[in-house]
Structures are given as C-alpha cells and as structure tokens.
Amino acid sequence: MKKATISYNDLIQENVKQAFANSFLKVKEHSNFYFTKLELTAVIFLLINIIGSNIMMITLIRYTSDYFLLSELILSSFIIAFLVFGFFYLKQFKPWITGLKKQHEALKYERNLLRALIDNLPDSVYIKDSNSRIIVANEAQIKNMGFEKEADVINKDDYEMYAKEIADQYRQSDLKIFKTGIPELNKELSYVDENNQNHWVLTSKMPIKNDNGDIIGLAGIGKDITALKNAQESMQKDRNLLRTIIDNLPDIIYVKDLECKKIIANPADVRTCGFKNEEELLHKSDYDTFPKDIADAFYADDLFVLQSGLSILNREEFFIDTDQNKQWLLSSKIPVRNEQGAIIGLVGIGRDITKRKNLEIELTGAKEKVEAGSMAKSEFLANMSHEIRTPLNSVIGFSDLLMKSQMSDTQQQYISAVYHSANSLLDIINEILDFSKIEAGKLEIENIKTDIFEIGYNISDVISFQAYKKNLELLLNIAVDIPRFVWTDGIRLRQVLINLLGNAIKFTKQGEVELKVETIQVFSASKRKIRFSVRDTGIGISKDNLNKVFEAFSQEDASVTRKYGGSGLGLTISKRLINLMGGELLVESTPDIGSTFYFDLILETQEGEAVEWNYLHNFSNILIVDDNTNNRQILKGMLALKGIQCDEAENGVIALKKLESDHKYDVVLMDYHMPVMDGLTAIEQIRKKYTSKKLPVMLLHSSADDSAINEACRKFDVQQRLVKPIKIQHLFESLSKLEYDYKLSEIKENNITKKEKLSIDHFKVLVADDNDFNIMLISTIIQDILPNAQVIEASNGEQAVDCYKQNLPDIVFMDIQMPEMNGYDATKSIRNIEKLKRVPIIALTAAAVKDERDRCIGAGMNDYVSKPFVRDTIIETINKWLLV
User: For residues 174-213, b (16+ Cβ closer than 10 Å) or e, as one string?
Assistant: First the structure.
C-alpha cells in the first residue's frame, strides 16, 4: 500500500507526539508512580465528597425546595472540583507542559544545528520520502540539480528533474533501499548538467526508519568526483597512448626493477626472449632467459646503470636467442628515478641490427650472388616453360582436333572449355615468363583487332563450370550497342577478365556473378570509351582494404593452408596490365553485399558484318521464365534487338497462370533451376495442356546439368536447350532452328571405345582436391576403370579426414595444397586414427621434384603422382596399391 507523503515538519510533529505518549500516556510501573500514599488518600477523599455532594443535591432537589442550601452545595462541589484539578495541574500537567516546551526547544535547536551543518557541507545532501520525493536538499544538491532554491525541488521526484533514463536509474536505486533496507555506499554515478557537461558523483544512500522500524524515507550524500575522474581518464589515456607506442614499436623496449627483473616488456622483447606473451616474461631476470655467459654481460650493464645513475647508449650487443639464432642488438639503458630523485629501475631499448651486421659481412659477395640468382631464375623459368608448354601443346592440339570432329552439343561445350582453358593457361605462362619485364616496365602491349563477343563467350565457357559447382548464376551482359571488333591486346584483356571472374566466384557463396561490357562515351563512329566490369554478390571488401587488394602478396595467409587460395598476384598483375593498356582498375564494394571491379578503355572500334538468322520474323511474343531478374533483363534486351516483345515470369507457377489466362506466346524460354516449381516440372504441366507445335519450349540450363535433363527433354519434347550464360548468337540460332524443325534431334551417345575394366569389385575411393576440374577428372577416370567403385569427394583436408572417418576408403588420392588443412596434415591425422588397416594414400602435387616426393613419403603417404596426370598413370597407381 502506498504511504502518504510526509514533510520534514511532519517528522518533527511525529516525534513530539511520540514523546508525549512516552512521558504521560505510557503505563508506569509502581516504583515510578507520580503520587504518594497521602496524596492519593486526599484525592480519593475529595472525589468521595464530590460524589456524595452530588448525591445529596439530587436528593434535596426531590424532597425540598430550599434553593439557598442547594446553591451552597453546588458552589462547594465546584470549589472541591477546582481544588482537585488544580492539584492535578500543579502536580502533573504543568511540569509536563514545561518539559514539553523544553523538549521542543531542544529539538528546534538540534534541527537548526543539523540544518546548518547540512547547508554548509560542500557535498550534496538530500532527504527523500518513501515516494522518492525530495523533502530536504542543501545548496550543493540544489545547484547540482540545476535549480536556484530549495522550494524549486521540494516534493519533486527524479522524473521531474532529470531525463527519463537517468531518473529510471535513480528510482531503481531508491526502490532497492526501500525494499531491502540495506544502505548503498560509495556508488559512482554520472549525470549531465544544464550546460550539457558530464559530471561524476560518489553517492551513498541510507534508509530512514521510525521507532517501529518502518522505512519512511532515505538520506543521500553525494561528492563531486568529476575532477578526479577526469584526471584518472586523462592519466589512463596517457598510459594507453604510451603503451600503444611501446607495443607497436619494432624496437625492443623493457623496464627492470632494482632486482634487474622485468616489470614491463613490449611484444618485440617477448618474441626475442622466446615467450608467447608478456605475462610469461614478467618478474624474470636475464638468467631465466639467456645462457649464463650472455646473462652475466647483461647483468653487469644493469648494475652499472643502477649503481652509477649513468646511461648506456647505442652499445652493440651480441646474443643467441632461444632458437639458437645469432642476434645483434643496438642497446641503450637509462636509469628511472622517482620524485625524490632515487633510482627505482631502468628502461632498456634495443634495435635489431642483425640484418645490418649480416649485410656488412656478406656485402663483398652480394653482387656475385645476385647475378647467380638471376641466372638460376632465368634457367628455371626457361626449363619450366619447356616442361609446361610440351603437355599444353598436346592438350591444345588434340582439343582442336576434337572440336572439328562430329560431337553432341554437350561434348562440344566441354571440349571448348578445355581448349580455351588450355589457351588461357598458356597465356598465364607467357605472362609469368614476362613478369620481370612487367617490373622493369618493358612489357609491350599489342594493339590488334579483337572480337569482343568471342572473348566474352570464351571466358564464360571457361568460368561456367566453376560457377555451377557453387550454384551461382553466371551472367554475360554485353550491351547490344557494343561494336563487335576493338583494337586492343586480346590476350591481356582475356587474362584480366578471367582473373576478375575467378576471384568473384571464389569469394561468392550464393547469388550471381556478372560480366558486363557497356559503352560509357562515344567519341566518333570508330572510337569510344568502353567499360568492362565484373560484379558479384560475395563477401565484399572493407573500405580499409580496398587499396590493399591491389598490392602484391597482400593475402592474409600465404601458406599452404589458407581459406581461399591464390598467390596474391592476380589483381596486382591485372592492375598493371590495365595501366599499360591506358586504363585503371578500380573497385567498389560493400561488406556482405558484394563487389564490382571495373576499368574503362578508350578503344578504336569497328562494327562487324550483320549476321542474319532465318525465321526470326515469325516470333513476336516470347515468355521468359527465370527466377533471376538480371538474367531476364539481359534476355529481354537481346530479343528487343530483333523487335521481339517479351513477357516475364519469375517461376513456373506464375508462368502457368499466364498461360491459363489466354496469353499467346510463340515460344517459352524456361529456366531449369527455380524455386517453387523447377523448369522441368513446369514443362510437364505445359505439355498436359499444349502440344509441342502449339507451344515450343527452350530450356535454359548449366552445362553440368546435361546428364540429369537429357531424358526429361526427350520425354517432354523440349525442342532446344541453351547453356548459361546465354550468348546472343546462340539464342538467335536456337530460335531459327525452332521454326525450321519442331522435332528435337536425337542426342547421340558417345561411342568412345572403352578398355576392359580392371575390376568389378566395390571399392571406396576418397579423392581430396580443392580444384573442381581435378576432382572431376580423376573421378571420371576412376569410374571408368572401376565402374562399381564409390568415389567420395572432399575439397579440403578437414573434409578429407571427416570422410575417412565416415567411409573408411580403400585408397586415398590426396592433393597437397588445400585450404583449411593441407595434404600433409590431413595424412598425419588419418595415420593417427587408423587402427588395423593402413590405407594407401597417394599424393597429388604439381611440384615434381625429389624433395617434394621425400616430403610426401615422410608425411606418411605411400606414393606420389605429379600433375598433370593421365589415365594410364591412375591405372598404374590403382594396380600397384589396390588390385594386389
């Protein structure tokens, strides 16, 4: 139940009433009775007389009419009563009233004394009632609250004087005291005054209780500690600044006490002494860290500084660290004194001059070593050029022959990707061989006629498989107004775009990657500024690292085990190439949203000969069904070039509703992968209501989907299929074929003759490689020679170990360089968890040197296969380690 508000004067009156009750109304013990026996007898006698007189008067009134006698009796009763009450007044009431006045005067004196003390205290003092309303506040408290006089704050609560968030804090503190009765002592609180200045107060609150022990209010005392807090904050900032400088200096910095033990050590000193953190080094002497002879020398210098008070400056010191490395320091030691001037320790500063000393020693032979290293580098690059070009010539040559042979569309797509990937690799090799020219500024950029559409198509073929493996949408968006031919270095341009697209796919988990080519400015009919951009929906780049990504070797982790892989040179080389071509590679990025890398080139251009496609005039309205908005817009722009109108649907359900509403379409372009209803399901529903001649359907899909959709396309009479990303010439060619022939061509099976299978046993083969093409290649070979084998795929070392635990394979093909965990560590982990059976582990590595083979065997692997490998190599390995 809520208590009524009580003022300070009410508190005084309450105390007076209590005093009255204690002094008069309280029942007294016999020993403290106020009347003697004689006095009590007289009082009783008088009371009997009064009572007797009253009885006589009543009798006389009834039996006599003598009014004089009656008046005498009444007068005598009044006199007796007056004597009785006079006696009581003189005996009891007057002394009590006199005492009460004295008590009131004493209380008034004490109150004035207390009030004077409260008002003159420099600290804030206030008293609140049980509703947290102010009933007393001294001048310091009134000033702190921003008021002029006490009347301005009396009977006000915190909500009427402070902001709600501050008032809430104060109210909760009050309620806690009212509830528990426990004082709150020395609590630091802050508030903002009317000038928007922050203040700190050290406050204490105590409950006020009445005689019954009930809490009727609280008293609070606050001391302004703003100056102290500001001083502490300033001191802490100075200490943090000093510590930040010390910790981030490359030089060694430490502080020792009078016992020559370290009490401060920066990270450079911690590393030099062979410890992991400062705590391990503190309170240790040099004898705990270095050999005795070195510690003796350091200790002697310390004693000299501490005893003489002189500094040692720039002394060269030699020592051997905990890893037995020879180190040189340029060392200085300065004494530290207190305010009285007494030495209390020393500060040591050491700069690592090991490299300088070694350079001085090796300076004489430096020129010969540099020349020898340069010659060795040239020989190595020449040898590598020969070793890599030889197999590449075969790849490119045989790929070219296959492309000219009779193949299905899917096979043509695959071999085209192989052919263009091999050519891109050859371009990379040429670039590596010319890297020294890039650094020297002597790399020459060619300026030849280049088919910009062909470059875009080739690049999309190379990149599309990587995008499919990550379920990414790859968009090729070449503006319809782009001229077909430009004069530039096509090889370098393709190299840059492949690098940018590869990075975009690498750093994108979901969404899309788009290659866009558009005109920015037209100077003349044969000259314009063209922008090439690669956009992704990946992890993005923070503003602090936007420029860093173009620095050479700028990856956070360049070791074998890394999250994303790569050498860290791709963007650096790309930026330099674009600079040589007259442009600048730029980036715009938002973390967790995506990135766009782009560059503008001013190029000479030429329109190509117009390509005519038959029967396109028969198409006037086409339904595009695709869940990707950008892909629909690209297709819509291509069709608009031929005056073909389009309608859009983002999934199969919406497409069916449009067809049911009597919309007339000449053809439906149906995407395969869509939410709600996929493309094949939608086509199946269409075929239940329309014949193939009434409504032709073209399926949009990734090349990797072929094996899954071949039979479905036959079943549902899908006339044409387009492989993503959609190229404009392929789109118009397919539309022309639709009008020419409605029947779907039979997909011819590959009649490549297969050799006799090695085994029909059901083996489990684990393949661990972070390269999707390598996994696809070796898996294809294994399934060809071991048709009943179960191939288990892992893209990094951690997955390989997990797959081993779950499947217990019969043989493992292990790549060396993989993210998360490399092949060496994965092999060691597998060996540690093996029990009875020792599984053969075959290393897959491109470093075909003796040291690499020895390292693989030393890590616990059984054999070694160098990349690139061929089918026969895998057959020999399986025969050697599995079919025994």
Answer: beebbeeeeebeeeeeebeeeeeeebbbbbebebbeeeee
543: which DSSP letter?
A: G
- pLDDT number for residue 828: 92
Which two three-digit tokens encode residue 19? 């005093």
Helix (H) or strand (E) holding 792: strand 790-794
Asked if pLDDT for residue 845 goes beyond 50, the answer is: yes
E strands present in 627-691: 645-649, 667-671
Kindly report whether the peptide bond that precedes residue 787 is cis, defined as omega within 30 degrees of 0: no
For the entire predicted model, the pTM comes to 0.41
pLDDT at residue 396, rounded to an integer: 65
Q: Which residue type, as a one-letter code, is found at position 694? A: K
Average pLDDT over residues 320-343: 84
Lowest mean pLDDT among 33-47, 173-187, 213-227, 343-357: 33-47
Q: Residue 186 corresponds to which tokens in the numbers above?
A: 């020395």
Chain-centre distance for alpha carbon 635: 37
Half-sphere exposure of 654 (CA within 13 A, CB side): 14
**688 CB-contact burial (10 Å; exposed 0-12 / middle 13-18 / buried 19+):** exposed
SS3 566: coil
Q: Does the pLDDT at position 742 exceed 80?
A: no
Strands 586-590 and 594-606: antiparallel
Confidence of residue 391 (pLDDT cuts 50, 70, 90): low
The yes-or-no verdict on residue 753 having pLDDT over 50 is: no
Q: How many CB atoms within 10 Å of residue 722? A: 20
Give me the half-sphere count of Cα atoms (radius 13 Å) on the Cβ side of residue 280: 11
Q: Rounded to an integer, what distance in angstroms lies between the CA atom of residue 214 and that of residue 344?
A: 58
Percent of the chain surpassing pLDDT 70: 75
DSSP track, 728-774:
HHHHHHHHHHHHH--SPPPPPPP-PPPPPPS--S--EEEEE-S-HHH
